[in-house]
Amino acid sequence: MKSARILIVEDEPIARENLDHVLRKEGYITMAVESGQEAFKALEKGEFDLVMTDLRMQQVDGLQVLERTKELFPDTEVIMITGYATVSSAVEAMQKGAYHYLAKPYKIEEMRILVRKALEKRWLRQEVVDLKRQVESQKGLPLLIGKTPQIEALKSTIQQIAPTDATVLILGETGTGKELVAKAIHHLSLRAEKRFLAINCGAFTEELLASELFGHERGAFTGARAVKKGLLESAPGGSIFLDEIGDMPLSMQVKLLRVLQEKSLIRVGGTNEIPVDIRILAATNKDLKGQVERGTFRQDLYYRINVVTLYVPTLAERRDDIPLLCQHFLQKFAAAQGKQIDRIASEVMDRLMDYEFPGNIRELENIMERAVTLAAGPVIEVSHLPKDFQQPGFQLQRRPKKEFATLEENEQEYIAYILKQMNGNKTKAAEVLGIDRVSLWRKLKKLDMNGE
Question: How far apart, in whole angstroms, are the C-alpha atoms of residue 211 and residue 230?
Answer without folding.
Answer: 6
